[in-house]
Write a structure and sequence with these properties.
The protein is an alpha/beta fold. The chain has 2 domains: 7-126 and 282-288, Rossmann fold (3-Layer(aba) Sandwich), CATH 3.40.50.720; 132-276, Dihydrodipicolinate Reductase, domain 2 (2-Layer Sandwich), CATH 3.30.360. 32% of the residues lie in helices and 25% in strands. α4 (78-90) packs parallel to α5 and α7 crosses α9. The chain is globular, with a radius of gyration of 20 Å. The chain starts with 6 loop residues before the first strand and ends in a 12-residue tail after the last helix. Keywords: Oxidoreductase. Residues 7-123 form the Gfo/Idh/MocA-like oxidoreductase N-terminal domain. This is Dehydrogenase.
Length: 334
């Protein structure tokens, strides 16, 4: 029996990321995970049995119709986010959508428009913005600790042997470096510099037509700039640097979920600021959604929908320049 006032969660997509997120629900006051769904009843049941989820559904539509689910976490491949988010919004469910938000810019715009029209809470699951160390870095920037931020650098790369059957290399599943890794560097730059005025991308494609690696230059009319790297071809440090007119903040590897940041100020010794995450690091975004839904809010102030759209447009422009063509999956609810 749920406690009155509890926000009840369901999961769409019992994959790797959902398995990582579920253990962090124990750190979220007022949240209860009640159900998981997959297009395979056996897969959903195995997930529920392994992780102690009370109920398993063999279809997404079945979970979305459940009266005891207030918010759904969409953890399927990128091209399935669009249709599932629209269906969840239509069902009146709040939504946490795993990054990257959708496979296309048009898809993201449609989901955001639907959420705002229905006044339903929707947020992209960009856990980096909720990491305590990144929150500390943002507070330093807002307090003027490094002056005016003029440049951001960030990289994220893994060595992934090419396999055309692997989701990471399959265009039908939204494969490629940018949607899996590039979203982190772009969102980080957007968080500290705002939305760029122009995007320049260079990289290479696999034989399946997705991006294997990409370098992005984000330009701003006042001369500010972000230089960003993402690759599936080799491991990179995964570091970031926020550079201002009077100092800089170093975000050590892996910058998208750091335990500390280092403040460098002109004329002062470096200052290490340690802020470890709770649990596996996913609890912070789960708290944001749970508290927002309980309070009746329709957007997050930390990860607002306008920021999600800005990031999606940068990724879309970069993919266009690289010659990568992705599409949403309209059949996921079939």
């Amino acid at each position: 029996m749920s406690t009155p006032g509890t926000v009840r969660w369901g999961i769409l997509g019992p994959g790797r990321i959902a398995r990582a997120v579920v253990p962090d629900f124990v750190h979220v006051d007022g949240a209860e995970l009640v159900a998981v769904a997959s297009r395979s009843a056996e897969r959903a049941q195995a997930f529920a049995d392994d992780l102690g989820v009370p109920r398993a559904h063999g279809s997404y539509a079945e979970l979305l119709a459940a009266d005891d689910v207030d918010v759904v976490y969409i953890a399927t491949p990128h091209p399935q986010h669009h249709a599932l988010a629209l269906a969840a919004i239509a069902a009146g469910k709040a939504v946490l959508v795993e990054k990257t938000f959708t496979a296309t810019t048009a898809g993201a715009e449609e989901v955001v428009a639907a959420a705002r029209a229905a006044r339903v809470f929707v947020m992209e699951a960009m856990w980096t913005r909720f990491q305590p160390a990144v929150v500390a870095a943002r507070a330093l920037v807002d307090d003027g600790a490094i002056g005016e931020v003029r440049q951001v650098q960030a990289d994220l790369g893994v060595e992934r042997p090419f396999d055309p059957a692997d989701r990471m290399f399959d265009p039908a599943q939204g494969g490629g470096a940018l949607l899996d890794l590039g979203v982190y560097v772009v969102s980080f730059a957007q968080y500290f510099l705002g939305t760029p005025d122009r995007v320049v991308a260079h990289g290479s494609l696999t034989s399946t037509g997705v991006d294997a690696e990409a370098g992005l230059l984000l330009g701003y009319d006042d001369g500010r700039v972000a230089t960003l790297l993402a690759t599936l071809r080799h491991h990179t440090p995964g570091a970031a640097r926020i550079q201002g007119t009077t100092g800089w903040i170093e975000v050590p590897p892996r910058f998208h979920h750091p335990g500390s940041v280092v403040l460098h100020r002109r004329g002062a010794e470096p200052e290490v600021i340690t802020r470890p995450a709770t649990g596996g690091g996913y609890a912070h975004e789960l708290v944001e959604v749970t508290e927002a839904v309980a309070a009746g809010r329709t957007e997050s102030a930390v990860m607002p929908l306008d920021d999600t759209l800005a990031v999606q447009r940068v990724l879309g422009e970069a993919l266009d320049q690289l010659g990568v063509h992705l599409a949403e999956d309209p059949e996921v609810l079939a």
